[in-house]
TrEMBL record:
It comes from Mastacembelus armatus. It is found in: Membrane. It is a multi-pass membrane protein. Belongs to the major facilitator superfamily. Sugar transporter (TC 2.A.1.1) family. This is Solute carrier family 2 member 2. PANTHER family: SOLUTE CARRIER FAMILY 2 (PTHR23503), SOLUTE CARRIER FAMILY 2, FACILITATED GLUCOSE TRANSPORTER MEMBER 2 (PTHR23503:SF27).
Amino acid sequence: ASLLFACVCIFCIGMEVLNTFVSQIVERHYGRFLGVWSEEASVRSENSTEEEEIPEAGKHPVVIMYWSLSVAIFSIGGMLSSFLVGFMGDLRGRVKGMLMINILAIVAGLLMGLCKMWKPHIMVISGRAVMGFYCGLTSGLVPMYIGEIAPKAYRGALGALHQLAIVTGILISQVIGLDFILGNDDMWPLLFGLSGAPAVLQSLLLPLCPESPRYLYILLGKEQEARTSLCRLKGAYDATSDLEEMKREKEEADREPRVSILSLIRSSVYRQRLLVALVMHLSQQFSGINAIFYYSTAIFTRAGVSQPVYATIGVGVINTVFTLVAVALVDKAGRRTLTLAGLGGMCCCAIAMTVGLKFQNEYSWMSYVSMSAIFLFVSFFEIGPGPIPWFIVAELFSQGPRSAAIALAGCCNWTSNFIIGMTFPYIEVLLDCYVFILFAVLLLCFTVFTYLRVPETKGKTFEEIAAVFQKGQKKRQRDNAELQQLKTSTDA
């Protein structure tokens, strides 16, 4: 199973590089094909003494439009496909669902890898759209599958491996995106095309993975097949206790109507759990982490780093190392504790980053404060707010509403990603060095919410987690009834 999600989640090769290292190269190719820029005209303009100048490719309005669409279409694809996670997972099962959607990643890789054969801007945008659609599905199906097959003692560590594979993919993409490897005029289509390669490998490994026992037993009622799947996952053992837990969960699910996305939103039973799930995904994206990843090279340049590209790769290394720390700690320290520590630490780092950027022109050592704050910011993110939202949704919900909840949480995540990616450049211009103060305020709010509302799910069964919310709901109902009674007595 670990091989499964390690291969699935390296889909981000070619994803981050589009926003950082090769943007100028791709913009030049767009401009050259669209006829609004040429290298010869640009050189003549630089050497000319006349007032008329040929603007850089990336500053031409048409190129800006197509480049912005290339960046944004990825998140839009993820937003749209996230609603189909439950449908794909229930159609033929978790494993077959993941296997079916691999064709999307392969098609996307071919579109981007062969973009020079036709119109590069159309091919890249189409490939990014298809890849985003694939990633929206796989970022829901993988945590769903992991959450259902993982033993409760290791559910957090296995869930965090999903994030580890993602950050490993980002690091690989940053390294192979260097100009002397694939990030150059000749090789950049291959760099983008490689994003489809993990899907080929995953297609070979998926048939070795057993189907989710919870899917087989609770949704299909196939007890013997669920027992066989459990033995494939855990080895030869007495599966009676696990089957009994699934039986109770199935009986509970059978008493309720099938939970769709719309009914989940309307249900008062799941409202608190859904709020927790959505806010945790919001905290992941609105923490400012994507602002760091999207614009880290520019931030390091502003801080006076002579080789900002390598500093950005350093961020990727820190990102990966501290995700490993999260894998080791999440089932010992707990989800709530790590999330609180991560959000609180990021809030302090955002303030330190603001101070460093504000005074770096007056004090040269302030650039080190800014850089240290970036590295620490990423470290705190990967300790908790990075990996935990992806798998905690599967822990908060039982089998019935799980698919709908993961779909909603995924859509929330992708929508937030899109909003940050599109608005951060404008916010940065508006607030300048104070931009991270905005994220510090948001992080403080998320920290308070986590402290007050998010329960600890470490080592608990799905039944026990549900009981925590039911207990809180009954207490609120009792308190409301007492307040109403007091109000009635006062009126009398």
